[in-house]
């Protein structure tokens, strides 16, 4: 389902969208913007999933009454990224 949303974009993005239409890469400017958004969507999803895991781990530690010390979050984050 599509919905209409009005947004302001940088002139360079508009020009890029118009070129995508001109070269047949997109059916319309709207389609071009959707393609731009979706191309970056996978990277954003991965980042959000990472922070979801960090948040859940922090909640588990809080339930166990474990207090996170200042500076120790980096250790947790690096452990999670290694997995």
Please give a quick description of this structure:
With 83 residues, the protein is mainly α. Helices cover 69% and strands 0% of the residues. The model has no long low-confidence stretch (mean pLDDT 85).
Count of discrete structural domains: 1
Number of strands: 0
What is the succession of H and E elements? HHH
Shape type: elongated
* Poorly predicted ranges: none
Cα gyration radius (Å): 20 Å
Describe this structure in words.
By secondary structure, the chain is mostly helical. The protein contains 3 helices and no strands. It has helices spanning 11-22, 29-63, 73-82. Helix 1 crosses helix 2 (29-63). The protein is elongated and about 60 Å long.
List the helices and strands and how they pair.
Blueprint: H1 11-22, H2 29-63, H3 73-82
């Amino acid at each position: 389902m599509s919905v209409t949303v009005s947004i302001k974009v940088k002139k360079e993005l508009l020009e890029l969208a118009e070129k995508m239409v001109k070269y047949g890469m997109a059916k319309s400017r709207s389609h071009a913007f959707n393609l731009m958004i979706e191309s970056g969507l996978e990277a954003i999803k991965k980042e959000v999933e990472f922070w979801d895991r960090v948040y859940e781990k922090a909640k588990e530690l809080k339930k166990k009454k474990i207090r996170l010390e200042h500076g120790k979050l980096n250790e947790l984050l690096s452990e999670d990224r290694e997995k």
